[in-house]
Every structure is written in C-alpha cells, then in structure tokens.
Amino acid sequence: MTDRVDALEAMRAQRIVPVIRTEDGGEARARARRCVEAGLALVELTTTIPAWEDLLRESRSECPNGIFGMGTVTTAEQAKAALDAGAAFLVSPRAAPEVRSAGDARGVPVIEAGFTPTELAAVGAGRVAKLFPAHVGGPAYLRSLRATMPDLRLVPSGGISLGDVPEWLGAGAYAVAVGSDLTAAPELADRLRALRPA
Predict the structure, then answer these.
(1) Preceding amide of 109 cis, omega within 30
(2) Nearest-CA neighbor of 19 among 68, 85, 66?
(3) Measured between alpha carbons, how far is 152 from 131 in angstroms, rounded to an integer?
(4) Rounded to the nearest 10 degrees, what angle do helices 52-62 and 76-84 cross at?
(5) Residues 82-140: pLDDT tens digits?
(6) 3-class DSSP assignment, residue 168
(7) Is 90 in contact with 70 (CB distance < 8 Å)?
(8) Considering all CA atoms of the chain, what is the largest pairwise distance in Å, rounded to the nearest integer?
C-alpha cells in the first residue's frame, strides 16, 4: 500500500495516527508492532530514531499488514532513503518543497506542517496538512481554521493525548496524530476499545 489514495484513505479511516519517537530502535519496533496488533495498521515512524531506515524495513517485514510512513523528514536525501525503504507516506514538521517533490515523483503522499492560516493554505492546498504544534491552539483553533478554510484537511499533531482525540475529531480533524501517550501504553487495545465503545 504505497500509493497516494491508499495511505490517505487508511489514515482517514483509522482516525488516529500513532507517531513513534524514541531513542531505542528495538523499543520503536515493539511499539510499532503493538500498534498494528491493536488495530492501528497505519503507523508513523520518525527519522529521529537511530537506524530508522532499518527500522522501517524491519517493521514492514514483521508487520506485513501495516502501513508505515516516515515522519520528521526534512531533506530530499531523507525522503529518498525513506521511499527506498518502503515508506507509504512522508511527514515533515515544516513546509518542505524538496520532500514534496520526492514524494510526488514516486506517487507517495507528503504531509507538510504549518500553524498559521497562511502556512496551512500553502502546504495544504489540495493535500492533507499537519497542524503543528497543535496543542498551542487546541481544538478551538482547529475549529476556527476549518470555519474559514473548510477545504483544508488537517491532521493535528503535538501534545495530544489519546483521550483528547474525540474532541479534535469533533473540531473537524481529518485524523489525529498521537505520540507517547498512545505508543508507550502496553494496554493500548483496551484503551482504544474504551475510546470507541461498541
């Protein structure tokens, strides 16, 4: 699943994007596996993890049903390495035209970040964009952005706990990125069931 429609549709359907950022590659791989086993097949790894290219390849091999993307991609070199390792999507913490070009050339979606209306309009025109750092403005800020720019598809990221996800979705988020609060929890499947009661 590496084409533009599959990764973004999976993100929209899943609604929660686990973001794994740790200094230990083994722990990162274990967290990725835990997410996939709990039903969160789409996972964002980050280039801040040591030997992240190997981690991406190993995670794809260990969890063949997973959809793994690479976050914190800021250069064309990182983008190429991530794509060569099989990334299904790329995420940048800022506007990154060189990353976007690399993704576009391979048909892989690139999600660039912005915070202000001007930044988000630039990186999100016809694309999914990352609202970062989202905790600064909160769901009310996202709601205001969507009121004036309803065509923007925004994924808030940064400082969001799993329990806050429903409020962000209610404010109009395309999906919500959750980091350590989600990926560090061994009881993840139980927490997700509590969040989405039958």
Answers:
(1) no
(2) 68
(3) 10
(4) 30
(5) 999 999 999 999 999 999 999 999 999 999 999 999 999 999 888 999 999 999 999 99
(6) helix
(7) yes
(8) 44
Contact 21, 33 (CB under 8 A): no
* The length of the chain, given as a count of residues: 198
Contact call for residues 147 and 130 (beta carbons, < 8 A): no
Give whole-number Cα distances, 117 to 81, 110, 114, 122, 171, in Å. Answer: 31, 19, 8, 9, 16
pLDDT value for 90: 98
Distance CA(177)–CA(81), nearest Å, equals: 23
Q: How far is CA 177 from CA 45, 85, 113, 129, 165, in A?
A: 12, 22, 12, 12, 9
Which pLDDT score is estimated for 184? Answer: 66
Query: Which segments of the chain have a pLDDT < 70?
Result: 1-5, 184-186, 196-198
User: Which residue blocks in the chain are alpha helix, DSSP H?
Assistant: 4-14, 25-37, 52-62, 76-84, 97-106, 117-124, 138-148, 165-170, 180-183, 188-195
Which domains does the chain possess? 4-110+161-195 (3.20.20.70)
